[in-house]
Request: fold
Amino acid sequence: MLVKQRNDNYWFIPVPLRYENQILGLINPGCTYRPSESSRKALGTMALIAGSALNNMSLREEVLLAMTKALEARDDETEAHARRVSMYAGHLAVRLGMDAYEIRFLRWGSLLHDIGKIGLPDAILHKPGPLTEEEMQVVKRHPQIGYDILRNLGFLGQAREIVLAHHEHWDGTGYPKGLQEEEIPLGARIFSVVDAFDAMTSDRPYRKAMSFKEAKKELSRVSGRQIEPKITHIFMNINDEELAILRQQAESSSNLPTKNKLLER
Ligand SMILES: [Fe+2]
Ligand SMILES: [Fe+2]
Reply:
């Protein structure tokens, strides 16, 4: 392992994080003494473990994205929407002071929020006109179906609660449980704000997208009813340029074919 000396009393040990033949990243710890052979070996072992963990993490995200892709083949709610809400939610969570561990679950829950729609019948999922009351009751089962699909994936942690609670409303009028205010898991409360925002600022077959400004106005109208006021307020303080960059990042990170491209094949 190469050791680089910056000056008389500072040393760097650049260590690549590898998984098999792939380099996933680089750590470059510094120390104030010339590292011994055994400390370099220990660092190498740690890098191997970290490389394998990183690889597992990206594999997991790929599996989760593949699941949203499976949903996209059945529903208009696209993988791009899942990526965008995941990106916005992660950014908002940083502003709320959440730690990296919690943010990971929030991002995964956001990616998978509508996975339960896979279990809805085509006649309801693809019905062009408005749904009857009975059909609406069937649609309202999708958070529970999603939760049941993911129930045994322990690594998803609190992401599963976000899937279950993503249609709960701050004032208790949501579903499936009619939870109110802080009974709703924090991740689901954050998610609801960004999901509403992304839905309004994206084109739908039956209407054009709203501008960020119009959507924020609408968010403030439903704040305290559908969504939590404090979280909404913090989201509103993220400026439009920043939101536009996040949106672009989420969309450009997608290298999977869109539904239309899949159908063209
Ligand atoms: Fe949903
Ligand atoms: Fe959504």
Q: What stands out?
A: Residues 37-72 form the longest helix (36 residues). The chain has two domains: 1-57, 73-264. The radius of gyration is 22 Å. The chain has twelve helices and five strands.
